[in-house]
Hints:
CATH class: Alpha Beta
Strand order of the largest sheet: 1-2-3-7-4
CATH topology: Chorismate synthase, AroC fold
CATH superfamily: Chorismate synthase AroC
Number of helices: 8
Shape: globular
Number of strands: 18
Distance between the termini: 31 Å
Low-confidence stretches: none
Strand content: 15-25%
Radius of gyration: 21 Å
Mean pLDDT: 92
Largest sheet: 5 strands, antiparallel
Order of helices and strands: EEEHEEEEHHEEHHEHEHEEEEEEEH
Amino acid sequence: xxxxxxxxxxxxxxxxxxxxxxxxxxxxxxxxxxxxxxxxxxxxxxxxxxxxxxxxxxxxxxxxxxxxxxxxxxxxxxxxxxxxxxxxxxxxxxxxxxxxxxxxxxxxxxxxxxxxxxxxxxxxxxxxxxxxxxxxxxxxxxxxxxxxxxxxxxxxxxxxxxxxxxxxxxxxxxxxxxxxxxxxxxxxxxxxxxxxxxxxxxxxxxxxxxxxxxxxxxxxxxxxxxxxxxxxxxxxxxxxxxxxxxxxxxxxxxxxxxxxxxxxxxxxxxxxxxxxxxxxxxxxxxxxxxxxxxxxxxxxxxxxxxxxxxxxxxxxxxxxxxxxxxxxxxxxxxxxxxxxxxxxxxxxxxxxxxxxxxxxx
Length: 361
């Protein structure tokens, strides 16, 4: 089973959580670009499981193996890039009791209705968050390339439950905030005090056999004005299309997002200003996008993540054979909060989308 994304760059992600491997095939990456493998491995490690007490204890190194498209010296050849990650720590027996009992808030029921009873749902199968690891291979490469073009992307934990971090300054976010976040990769927040409260909430959910959701805020700075298209092919469309490919994302907003619905036009409009050479906006409630096109201001968006659906608390479900109600007890190793490991995936997704936009003719 596989999934595709892209207009100029095309990526195809395939495999399942408990298959021998998962992988990605990508066309359209920049020819002759040299990949910094140490940087890529470090980026992949941020998403990998088992890094701290706040994530699942499943151990997977998530080291990509390039089968094509990368020459000696880690140079992109311009040909199709094929990279794989070997799955080495599966425990499929943890899912043996779920063959005909769909897990609440998982894709199990809908997938079985679409693909039939032989669909592989071990560990979530192709619908698992594990499939974001291959996305981070190409996303990590795009992040490196974009920096050579003066574009940088970073994200932080905007909130966990009802605890909020200091939000990005929509008009001025950039290098200062990004450097702070890169020093706090275990829990990337601007406010250390908020971070400690978030940590406590996550540990509390874990101790109770439960989980908790949150919001990720991501910013891309350095985009030239006029990037994108109106209506169906704009920046918001392209970013949203790939961000919603991250399992667990239930909502997305740009700039002030849904908050603009409470404002008047005189409050929401971003005034244009100039220093005599360049034009920008004094504020950035639009999140760097007007009419689907970039304004040259930071592109800032937030994505809402649901609580991890696999929890240890007993839940109600239905046996699809007997059609009788059953009590479900989920086994396995699961994150009490998927926000932390999803954060680098947001950066990867945004980088792929921005690279795709830069490649528009």
